[in-house]
Amino acid sequence: MSNCFVNRKSDNTILVTFVTTNSYNSWLDKQAGNVKQWMIASQFRPEANAVRLIPDAQGNISMALCCANGNVNLWSAGNLPFALPEGEYYFDDAEAEYKQLAIAWGLGAYQFTRYKKPQRAPAKLYLPANIAAEVENIVAAICMTRDWINTPTDDMGPTEFAKVAAELAKQYGAKFSEIVGEDLLKQNYASIYTVGRASDDAPRLMDMRWGNPKHPKITLVGKGVCFDSGGLDIKPSSYMLLMKKDMAGGAHVFGLARMIMQAKLPVCLRVLVPAVENVISGNAYRPGDVITGRSGKTIEVGNTDAEGRVVLSDALTEAVSEKPELLIDMTTLTGAARVALGTELPAVFSNNDKVVNEVIACGDSVIDPMWRLPLFAPYREHLNSQIADINNNSSEPYAGAISAALFLKEFVPDDVPWLHFDMMAWNLKSRPGRPQGAEALTLRALFTYLQKRYQ
Fold first, then answer.
1. Contacts for 423 with CB less than 8 Å, ≥ 6 apart
2. How far is CA 136 from CA 110, 128, 130, 168, 363, in A?
3. For 241-280, what is each residue's pLDDT tens digit?
4. Contact residues for 108 (Cβ-Cβ < 8 A; gap 6+)
5. Alpha carbon separation from 211 to 24, 202, 284 (Å, rounded)
6. What is the DSSP string of 65-82?
7. Domains, the chain
8. Helix or strand holding residue 30 (H, E)
9. What is the pLDDT of residues 100-129, one digit of tens each?
10. What tens digit of pLDDT does each residue of 5-60 get?
11. Which residues, 6 or more positions from 222, have their beta carbon under 8 angstroms from its beta carbon?
């Protein structure tokens, strides 16, 4: 069990009770006189995320009162691990949202401690046996994903990324391999090699396989740009500050893979992550270069800062060669998606209405939202090139997220059900359950969907 959960209740385990800002007064009217007196004397205000410890008649703490703004849901418990004193707590066993509240508790207890010691330990929550395994699985996978994204490139470049991915594979008995450096050219992954060749940490394609080959094939592809300077089309320095997170798509697909493997879903899983650094040196790829990718399509480089779609093109080409039943790619692909939807709402594109609608519904059910954007075919002409099959950069300054998705669509046939996610993967500010820093988005939605479809 993680350090924020316990598997037994003791005499010292404290009940957590929720009220809403609107229901507080009616709740207070029903309480014993000593409770009423305490709440009034302590000047409790029923505001969102307000917390108050309540003593019994003997002065011992009998419950923790927590106030939610509106209905009690997933994030109502997100601030409690540090809002409450260290100790052990539990929700009413009849609480319908116990599992979701417990997930939020675990996510709210997250701290990135690789370089800085935690200020204190989180309060601990009792997990009933019937939900413990699933809650632990989801929380551990998301915390792993956050850790990988939060880690600076010095300690999470292509080599280190492959090392932690190999360790994950070993933990679950999965097969792991990688194609590194010039071997990418020998095995026809020129797009990955070209983008990453300027770094002193060689580009590579990570490939993990797990599960019974007779089970339905699910393939996950993640963007693994461990740092993105923009290349020769260099970013302003302020735009580089968060570029350690440009491998978040890769971290996400390994996080989802961990959930799948831990739950032993009956699927044949493959994970492909091209890991590169997009940096500058004498052999950096240039605007105007033409790359012949694994698919045979030629790609004119209109902008070296549109590198993510280029490395993904080779990985997607390999992924669809096995005709998976479901293909999911996860990326931090465009700033345009953030302009359209903000930082908290990922964009999803798909060539299959049934699948994407079901995934969106699953996301809504667990408060892990996303918003579908269209694969608007008329915009494909913005990617035309006079000298190659396609340009990696749109000729128009608008609809950048759609143009990037249309670029990727060139490498996915219509008969392969496909989901493409374009996300921020970063909390700009702290909120309950979501501390400032790296964030895993859509993983709970996707895992819920896969559980319903395959469990």
1. 248, 249, 252, 330, 331, 332, 337, 346, 347, 441, 442
2. 13, 11, 12, 16, 19
3. 999 999 999 999 999 999 999 999 999 999 999 999 999 9
4. 77, 78, 79, 80, 81, 82, 122, 432, 433, 434, 435
5. 50, 29, 39
6. EEEESSS--GGGGTTHHH
7. 5-127 (3.40.220.10), 139-454 (3.40.630.10)
8. none
9. 999 999 999 999 999 999 989 999 999 999
10. 999 999 899 999 999 999 999 999 999 888 999 999 999 999 999 999 999 888 88
11. 247, 249, 250, 251, 252, 253, 254, 271, 272, 273, 329, 330, 331
Report pTM.
Answer: 0.97
> Which residue type is seen at 166?
A
Q: What CA–CA distance (Å, rounded) separates 53 from 60?
A: 10
Give which of 319, 420, 328, 316 is closest to 374, Cα–Cα: 420
- How many Å apart are CA 24 and CA 21, to the nearest integer? 6
| Residue 2 reports pLDDT greater than 80 | no
Q: Nearest Cα to 159, choosing from 206, 221, 201?
A: 201
CA distance 359 to 354: 9
HEC profile of 389-410? CEECCCCCCCCHHHHHHHHHHC
In angstroms, rounded to a whole number, what is the distance separating the alpha carbons of residues 298 and 387? 9
Q: How far is it, in rounded angstroms, from Cα 220 to Cα 334?
A: 19
Phi, psi torsion values for 63, nearest 5 degrees: -160, 165
Question: Token digits for 323?
Answer: 């005709």
Give the CA distances from residue 254 to residues 108, 272, 274, 314, 329, in Å, rounded to whole numbers and listed in that order.
21, 9, 12, 18, 11
Catalytic residues: 235, 309
**Rounded to whole angstroms, how far apart are CA atoms 149 and 164?**
12
> Among candidates 252, 244, 282, 240, which has minimal Cα distance to 158?
244
